[in-house]
Amino acid sequence: GLLSTDPATVPFRGHFEYRWKVYTDLRKTIQETAGSLTQFACGYQQLGFTKDEETGRITYREWLPPAQSMSLVGDFNNWNEGATPMSRDAFGTWEVTLPPEAIPHRSKVKFCALTPDGSKVYRVPAWIRWSCPDLGKFGSTYDGIYWDPASSTDDLCFKGFTAPRPEMPQSLRIYEAHVGMSSIEPKCNSYLEFAKDVLPRIKESGYNCIQLMAIMEHSYYGSFGYHVTSPFAVSSRSGTPDEFKALVDEAHRMGLLVLIDLVHSHVSNNADDGLNGMDFGQAESDSYFMTGDRGYHRLWDSRLYCYKNYEVLRYLLSNLRWWLEEYNCDGFRFDGVTSMLYHHHGLYMSFTGNYEEYFSMQTDVDAVVYLMLASELVKSLRPNAIMIAEDVSGMPGLCVPVAEGGIGFDYRLAMSLPDLWISLLKEAKDEHWGMNHIISRMCNRRRGVEKTIAYAECHDQSIVGDKTIAFWLMDAEMYTGMGDDGTQGTVAIERGMSLHMIIRAITMGLGGEGYLNFMGNEFGHPEWVDFPREGNSWSSAHCRRRFDLADSGLLRYRFLLKWDVALHALEESTGFASDEHLLVSSQHEEDKVIVFERGELIFVINLHPCNDYMDYKVGVREHGRYKVCLDSDAYDFRGRGRTVHDWVYFSAPEGVPGGPGNFNDRMASITLKVVPARSCTVYEKLLEGHAQQTGMDTPVAQAIRHAVDAHEASAEERREMADRVQGA
């Protein structure tokens, strides 16, 4: 287990033994009371609204021990508080059963409760499957919506999933997307529009997985979906539950995995619209939340779950099963895991890697045990499901299986990498960047033990008040210099585009075992994300994605997108991101050159702003012949075309690695004709019979060319369609 593979954990054996005991004791209790963990996670079959398949009778149940009385109200009974009273059992669960079809499909529902202080409140049910505001009233509160499409004659009713779930790829290339802001137009996009217009773009670009933000219902749009109000409901801004199912089915039809950005670390403090409305000031044992200051996140202004509470565990574990089985999703990106792992929530902490920071009295064992149960549940329901943790602390064992003493995630996000790039762009000219600094940050992870998803930037860097990498690089010239006149553009534009491509290549090549990109950043989306709010007069002008900029044949954005397509094609054809072989053979501070091996590929990065290097020697892993398969300086990417593509490089022996006179600890070397300034060039080792003649592409280069050409053809079709629409 973890104690044997990581000796640094041995002094904390007592912590792990205690954690394991809490986990096994809780697991035993669940098995004794519910039969199994998977059965325990079927709460949505007993709580909330359920329908007896034989009789058609509708039962509504709500766990709310402090309520003095409760009744179900809604359109079905004209919101009459006395018409549908509920009864309470010994465990604090309220219940009422109604005749078949007593509540119409899509009708509004809430419950009315008398609180311990005698107040009367109306609340959205905790297990509600859809929730909407009154669209005719600005600022109106949310109502629960009774969702029973099987009782409807609506022709748009989802008929069932038809596409098979995609097989697990050798490595994940994740497209982080927000459905609402995915339209080219300044509006809130729908699930069906996203499936029709955006999914094809994602597939054509070479991604194999989408990570969907803001799917769980949230009353405040500007929260980016992280202030969840109804965890079992899909966001009504973009459509219905059936329409979201159609999106998932279409993604699967295209071979794309679907991950949900899951928020179990906290919940919105909005009592009128969601789960926080269940807090009547009751004891912790009767609440979804911790009491006192422990129940609030000071920075996020949100409520914190009480993970040791039996009914909270039922609620959250059932929520995981709900998204896997009801919506056929393929896994989760768990948001805010650092906040869950520690009582201090990571606030004002600077983690140094000292293990005492991870395993101490500050560790929230109840939350850790919940995550262990969540991992066990997800893997028991779907062994290939993906679990990704957003953790900035770097806790050891987070991505080690539960059976081996870990918490059970498959991947962690490399959250330090965006910070690296932003700090370099903000604080130093690129001629002063340290090669050793870049390499040490890229490789600072638990390689071989725990997997990492690398990314240069995500949605965090796109939010108003921050800047994307493209904007840090090109700033105001993005408004004036992105028109394509056939040249490399101004000094700022050429520098910006070159470094934009290099940063992505280094991050994908060195930073992890998978890769993530936020929607639009692949082509250097200009400006920032700003959701409609009072401060911007409720405008959606900056809450959209201008995919049309990358489609245009008159703008330079398309070259950044082509590079992204080429990188994904390189990874798809070689599998380098999942290859265990990773070695940095050179990090030359004066030359500003980095050479590293990933799988069978040789990456040569020149970050010097002006120096081209002729006859430049680089070490290689094996003897053989090598040839360029990808080049950021190529004309295809609006580069200067300095790299020699036709040449086949034959290796020269370098003796015993590490011995006298050996070069860079490699058994062989090749001498490159030119290593252009500000470029990334990737070399492929040729197999016998491949590319014997000059002018022939390597097999990998051919695969890249095919992917780029196919993408270009699709972009041309979109341009022609846009022209026809504009003409009409």
TrEMBL record:
SUPFAM superfamilies in UniProt: (Trans)glycosidases, E set domains, Glycosyl hydrolase domain
Pfam families: Alpha-amylase_C (PF02806), CBM_48 (PF02922)
SMART domains on file: Aamy (SM00642)
EC number: 2.4.1.18
Keywords: Transferase
Domain Glycosyl hydrolase family 13 catalytic: 189-558
GO terms assigned for molecular function: 1,4-alpha-glucan branching enzyme activity; cation binding; hydrolase activity, hydrolyzing O-glycosyl compounds
One of the record's GO cellular component terms: cytoplasm
Pathway annotation from the record: Glycan biosynthesis
Domain of life: Eukaryota
InterPro entries to which the protein is assigned, alphabetical: A-amylase/branching_C, Branching_enzy, GH, GH13_cat_dom, Glyco_hydro_13_N, Glyco_hydro_b, Ig-like_fold, Ig_E-set
Broad class of enzyme this protein falls into: transferase
Catalytic activity: Transfers a segment of a (1->4)-alpha-D-glucan chain to a primary hydroxy group in a similar glucan chain
Positions of the catalytic residues: 335, 390
Any one of the GO BP annotations: glycogen biosynthetic process
Stated family: Belongs to the glycosyl hydrolase 13 family. GlgB subfamily.
The protein, known as: 1,4-alpha-glucan branching enzyme
Native organism taxonomy: Eukaryota, Sar, Alveolata, Dinophyceae, Suessiales
